[in-house]
Write a structure and sequence with these properties.
alpha/beta; 119 residues; 5-stranded mixed β-sheet; globular; Metallo-beta-lactamase, Chain A
């Protein structure tokens, strides 16, 4: 049996004001997406999310409002980050570029990432 909690966190991108981060608790504790910014991170802590017991962060796709805190969470808590095979290829392609693993990989735009065949 497992339990899923939704955490609504603030973001500052276009017309969007919030994003969802999901916490799945069962035999393992998984965070789905990580929010975007320091405000998102702080909101997660204020909503009672304990990072100490998280086993994995799963990123649904590589938009900044979904991955912006993943690198921080990985570095501060040693949490493994999981994502789809195509997203792994994109991250590897941009390793070493400024901001490449700290948020939306540079060099691409959302339209290219959402093109047919890229999902």
């Amino acid at each position: 049996m497992f339990k899923i909690d939704r955490h609504e966190v603030p973001i500052a991108i276009r017309a969007l004001k919030t994003a969802n981060v999901y916490e799945i608790r069962g035999k393992k504790k998984i965070i789905v997406d990580s929010g975007m910014s320091e405000d998102s991170y702080r909101a997660l802590m204020e909503q009672g999310l304990s990072m100490d017991s998280v086993d994995y962060i799963f990123l649904t796709h590589l938009h900044i409002d979904h991955i912006g805190n993943a690198h921080r969470m990985q570095q501060e808590y040693g949490i493994s980050v999981a994502m789809g095979e195509e997203d792994i290829k994109r991250v590897k392609l941009h390793q070493g570029e400024p901001g490449g693993l700290q948020g939306f990989p540079s060099g691409n735009n959302e339209d290219e990432w959402n093109a047919p065949g890229n999902n």
